[in-house]
Amino acid sequence: METPGNLFVVAAPSGAGKSSLVKALLELDSHLRVSVSHTTRAPRGQEQNGREYHFVDRPAFDAMVAANEFFEWAEVHGNRYGTSRIGIEARLMAGEDVVLEIDWQGALQIKQLFPYAVLIFILPPSWQELEQRLRRRGEDGEDVIAVRMQNAREEVAQARHFDYVIINGLFETALFDLKTVVHSQRLKYAAQRRVKSTVFHALDLA
Ligand SMILES: Nc1ncnc2c1ncn2[C@@H]1O[C@H](COP(=O)(O)OP(=O)(O)OP(=O)(O)O)[C@@H](O)[C@H]1O
Ligand SMILES: Nc1nc2c(ncn2[C@@H]2O[C@H](COP(=O)(O)O)[C@@H](O)[C@H]2O)c(=O)[nH]1
């Protein structure tokens, strides 16, 4: 599907810092909107329904799956997460740029539907730092951290399917890299469209 807006997908193992990076990017970039996913996970800490996620129970989530209301969904760390069509379709069609913070399974589903989507994978600088970030965040118990560290090995192996890989060691450096990817995609997409429209006019197909 081709739309006037750009679509960016940011994935990472839990704790690598993707939400922090996307939040910082959104503060700098007024043309970008983040999609709010649905999840069956319980809210943690200060999370609010409709802000970080739409929190729904499993029957409600499964009903949305059955009604084909998601562009993608996946089971991650024992919970279900999905990107609703309603959340992003209108924005993309209106020419807005949208960023999805989702796991690698969802990212690959999105690439099937939107081949022009830009897939960005965030890596932590080391396994040790990843674990420390999960602990320092102070939101998850030891059992949850253990599951997420275990799943991180498989997730990181999927980075090769992504268009860009950014190492989030120094936060400001990673943020600069992310901004550069978004900016260069905008320039590329705008140039492609100019070329297309010139060719269409030249051939009298417009
Ligand atoms: N470059 C960095 N250096 C040090 N700490 C960082 C860095 N980036 C993020 N953090 C911290 O690491 C913790 C995890 O970050 P964040 O919540 O953004 O991860 P995440 O990848 O979005 O995880 P999840 O998928 O579980 O939501 C947070 O406490 C955040 O402040
Ligand atoms: N496939 C999807 N994955 C999603 C979506 N929203 C979030 N996520 C990913 O789930 C894990 C865990 O998130 P957490 O908030 O419980 O720490 C993380 O990798 C998210 O990126 C979604 O809509 N689809």
Automatic annotation (TrEMBL):
EC code: 2.7.4.8
UniProt main location, coarse: cytoplasm
Keyword entries, A-Z: ATP-binding, Cytoplasm, Kinase, Nucleotide-binding, Transferase
UniProt: ATP binding residues: 12-19
A Gene Ontology molecular function term of the record: GMP kinase activity
Catalytic activity entry: GMP + ATP = GDP + ADP
InterPro entries in UniProt: GK/Ca_channel_bsu (IPR008145), Guanylate_kin-like_dom (IPR008144), Guanylate_kinase (IPR017665), Guanylate_kinase_CS (IPR020590), P-loop_NTPase (IPR027417)
Domain Guanylate kinase-like: 5-183
Localization terms from the record: Cytoplasm
Function comment: Essential for recycling GMP and indirectly, cGMP.
Family membership: Belongs to the guanylate kinase family.
Protein name in UniProt: Guanylate kinase
Record organism: Ideonella margarita
Phylogenetic classification of the source organism: Bacteria, Pseudomonadati, Pseudomonadota, Betaproteobacteria, Burkholderiales
Gene that encodes the chain: gmk
